[in-house]
Design goal:
By secondary structure, the chain is mostly helical. It is built from three helices and no strands. The longest helix has 31 residues. One of its GO terms (molecular function) is DNA binding.
């Protein structure tokens, strides 16, 4: 997974509300990499959380046969700790 540098630069430009916003040629790839790592970690933690939740809801009923679903709630449950860890 990776992010398009042009898209990331456009998002940063829009977020700053400054049409003259520019990033150095070194900062843009690093920002893309950081967003990739952050997103990957968010998905992995959400997957773990969803698996634990599924297992606790289906104790002794063979939860391995049911698919693991990552929903918005899963993302919201792990996001606060992830933001603290990346701070």
């Amino acid at each position: 997974m990776s992010f398009n540098p042009d898209t990331i630069q456009a998002i940063f430009k829009q977020a700053t509300n400054n049409p003259d916003f520019k990033m150095s040629k070194d900062a843009l790839p690093v920002s893309c990499e950081l967003l990739t790592v952050f997103t990957t970690e968010l998905v992995m933690r959400s997957l773990q959380q969803s698996m634990q939740r599924r297992n606790s809801l289906h104790k002794g009923k063979g939860p391995e046969s049911e698919p693991v679903v990552i929903d918005v709630g899963s993302l919201e449950r792990v996001l606060p700790q992830l933001l603290l860890d990346f701070n």
